[in-house]
Amino acid sequence: MTTEHDRPRSTTPAGTPTAQELKGMIDSGRTGDKVAFPDPGAAPLGTDDEAAGTPDTPYRVAIAMRQELQHGLAANSGGQSSADDWQCATSTARSRPKSPNIQIYRPQLTSVLSILNRLTGIILSVAAAVLVMWLIAAATGPQAFGLVQGALASWAGQTLLFGVTFAFFVHLCGGIRHLVWDTVHGFDLRSIYISGWIVFFASFILTLAAWTLILLLRA
Amino acid sequence: MGRQIMRSALARAVGLGSAKAGAEPWWAERVSAVALVPLMLWFAASIIAHTGSDYATFIGWMRSPLSATFMILLLLSLFHHTALGLQVVIEDYVHSGAKLAWGMAVRLGCFALATAGVVATLHIAFVG
To answer: Which of A47, A98, B38, B49 has the smallest count of CB within 10 Å of its CB?
Structure first.
């Protein structure tokens, strides 16, 4: 679609749009991600920079305006007049990325451990259900117990048990880290990374130690 | 355009007073976590110690009052913690109407599993 909409519209001479102008466009709903409603604080857009004495250059404002308006127009089906743009833009929400944006951010130790704590919690919930089945089998009698023990002793069972052991130690160590945080300790960046690496390595060491012990006792 | 509510969420909540129970699930999650640290370590150590034990030996261990007590405490705190944890996961990721159904399923499932586990433990302890 090549219409006049592709060019940043400007009322200032010589195509030098201002941040104020762009803010007005967003406020009036022209960019499609906001209902037309005047709220002075919603889009500071460059006003902080201006206050700091380092306003955006007209060139950068023009880029921002082009970006904002293209998104807004892409959201509706090619409006003919600016009145159409206005209506379509206000009714069609722009598909901006939503929080927590994990598809954008580079994985970090902190975020990976946070996700792992949840994931291991879910895995351990399933394991808890297996624990109950195991207890019921034990209460039922030697035959039922042997059946469950046999399933757990199979390669698939042992692999799953190893995974559950690792999940358990990750959740245990991560949980203790959370309990320490709850006492309002260890919140500075350095401590957060130190405790993070401790959780990471401790989980591996404890899992390997547990299984070494199991294999030694079996031999 | 439909009726727009001009008052902010804060303005609508101010003056109504706190529900006084907001921190309860958060606190209960911590209490159960603290209980689970020694209980799970006891369980892991006991299971490792029983590597290669036959059924009779294992049941003999489970029948001791100490083991049965620890096992029941473990089951109660484990499923309390599980229900609270999964509740948070559901609240964070399920936004459709299924949220209520999932929350209910988790709560009832944890209740059922905890009860079944406790009954099995008591059965082993008293019946064998």
So the answer is: A98
